[in-house]
Each structure stands twice: as structure tokens, then as C-alpha cells.
């Protein structure tokens, strides 16, 4: 494949990588942390204003800290009355945002997600799901049809999902290998 111009969006880059069948080597958080550890101390002022000591201090912070936040109006002795809040360091947050953007772009481009699904789609929310439900009910009532509904509350779905199930699902949908690798890194040593 001949590249005549630089891709101007992540989606275009993803399409080029998919056509090449050989993604560029990814830069993962662990590599960044390793390189920051190698930086020397005491360097004079630099053009970007970020001194090495600052970067070294940032990576020494606990990468993940959790706090249990009590849900108002719930009994304090019930474990389900608390919401675990995971606080990531800045590098971790950046990594998470990039990973989410890449995974969402892959899911949209590959059309894996059903149009009926409202999670993981840009510009779609719970309100859109409710509007669709109301339209179905109205149309069914106009046609004198019976309407039934089954709802499921997947309480803490992400928190109770085994990480291996997530990585297996990515393999089954043929997610690009570099996305699979990033998810493995993201989930490594993560506990809820």
C-alpha cells in the first residue's frame, strides 16, 4: 500500500494499519515508565518546562488507589452500599483515554456493536434508549399489539467480570493485536 499523505485522524490511521496487517510498534505505559526511570536528574531548564525530577516524582506515586464512597441513603453496614472509586495517576489516565478511543474506533469501524446497543456508541445515551423504547410502545399500541419488556440491571458488571473474559472476547472479535496487548497491560495488576 502506498501512503501519499499523513492520516489526519485516528480512524484513518487504524484503517491504514489494518490494511498493512502489521501495526506499528505500540508505545505502552510500561515503556514510558521505564524510560522516565532512566532520565538523569539535575538537568537545566528545558524548552517544554517539564524537568526530569517532576516526571520521576509522578511515576513514584501509587498508580492506583481506591476509595470506597458511600451511596447516600444506603445502610452503612451493607457492602453493596459503597461504590469503589479507583484513582489513577496522570499517565494512567492518559493511557486509559487513548485505549478507550482506540477500542471504540475499532468497534465502530468493524461494526461489531449492534445498532440496538446504546453503550459504547458516540452520541448515544440512556435517553436515546428510552426514546426508542417509547417509540416501540407507541407504535405497538397503535397497532393494538401487546408489549412486553424484560430489563436487567447488571450491577457492577465491570467490577465482577473476570479480566480473562474481556481479553478472550477481544480475541474472538478479532480486535487488532496491539489493542489486545494494550488491554492486557491496562488490566494487569488491577484489583477491585
UniProtKB/TrEMBL annotation:
Pfam families: RVT_1 (PF00078). Residues 69-178 form the Reverse transcriptase domain. This is Reverse transcriptase domain-containing protein. It comes from Aphis craccivora.
